[in-house]
Every structure is written in C-alpha cells, then in structure tokens.
Write a structure and sequence with these properties.
Strand content: 5-15%
Largest sheet: 2 strands, parallel
Structural class: mainly alpha
Order of helices and strands: HEHHEHEE
CATH superfamily: Winged helix-like DNA-binding domain superfamily/Winged helix DNA-binding domain
Number of domains: 1
Distance between the termini: 26 Å
CATH class: Mainly Alpha
Length: about 90
C-alpha cells in the first residue's frame, strides 16, 4: 500500500455513520489536495473495503451506476437523498 493509499484509508475509516464528504475533501484531509479523482479510483478498486457510500462528488452527486445502493445506505444513516444527489451534506 502506498503512502497515499494509507492516508486516504485512514480518512475513510474515520468517517462516521451519517457523515458525507466529497472526494476532494477526503484527498485534502489526507494531505493530497487536488487528488479527488485518485480517491475515487481507490474506492472503485477497494471492493467495498471502505465506506464508499459516504463519499460523493463536489455537487453532491452519487456514484454513477451505484446510485440506488448508495442512496439506500445513506438514507439508512439519516441522510436525505434527492434524485441522484445528497440533499444536505453533513460537513466535517
């Protein structure tokens, strides 16, 4: 595992139920501002190892192709989902 992966994993593992962040926020908190896409690639390759459903695009958009599952998981944690976007984002 690279240092980037370790730092991102640490941020992801600290996300609490009901907490929603963006890919960019995860990257910045991990010490890699501007690496939001790399966070997305890490999550896509992780096979559900991390709470991927708590991470959305900057505009609150859910993961394309996984919107139904992500919305279901977020709603179960008390997050409002409108269409394919998070209604109000719980900021860190």
């Amino acid at each position: 595992m690279t240092v980037f992966q370790e730092r991102v994993a640490d941020v992801l593992e600290r996300l609490a139920p009901g907490e929603v962040v963006t890919y960019g926020e995860v990257a910045a908190e991990a010490g890699y501002p501007g690496a939001g896409r790399a966070v997305g690639r890490l999550l896509a390759a992780s096979h559900g190892e991390y709470p991927w459903w708590r991470v959305v695009a900057a505009g609150g958009r859910l993961v394309p192709g996984a919107e139904r599952e992500q919305a279901r998981r977020l709603r179960a944690e008390g997050i409002r989902v409108e269409g394919s976007r998070v209604g109000t984002m719980a900021r860190r």
